[in-house]
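Exam prep: given the inputs below (a chain plus shikimate-3-phosphate), describe the expected output before reading on.
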Amino acid sequence: MTPRVVLIGLPGSGKTSSGRRLAKVLAVPFADSDDLVQTATGCTVRELFEDRGEAAFRAVEAEVIATALRDFAGVLALGGGAVTDAATRTALRASGAPLVHLRAPVRTLRTRVGDARSRPLLAEDPDARLSALALEREPFYRELATFEVDTAARTPGQVAARIAARLHERSPR
Ligand code: S3P
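Solution:
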């Protein structure tokens, strides 16, 4: 079993909101790696960062994603930083699942993440942090992506419809 589709992109790109809609459209379950981390550890992402540090969070994140790539057959949304782990990038490529990069300009991401308190990496200075993360991660997203969808001017429902249409073009049933 492999995911029907994996969503990658920066925080605020719409992975969770569009992913939930897409799962409904495709009539499959939805999972978010942050929720899988929380289920595996009993801690929120913020607690993990605060109590055990980012490296510990990344290790659990890589593990739950590896498991989901083997066992989960729905729409899988990844935390924005998951692609910084080399083993995760290898597992994503090997999975054969379509990898969809959700894209939006930093100013749109910034508006969407709001006060960013639940996102430890953005808590200090969200504008500067988002710009830095975009610079660091865009190459990974681009290199991995089967295709990209611009989410800036689309509602989650429209993003989901666009992804479903692109998936259908690739393998009509
Ligand atoms: C992170 C993004 C978050 C979460 C954690 C770290 C990141 O997920 O995994 O706070 O490194 O960009 P979202 O992309 O769903 O916000």
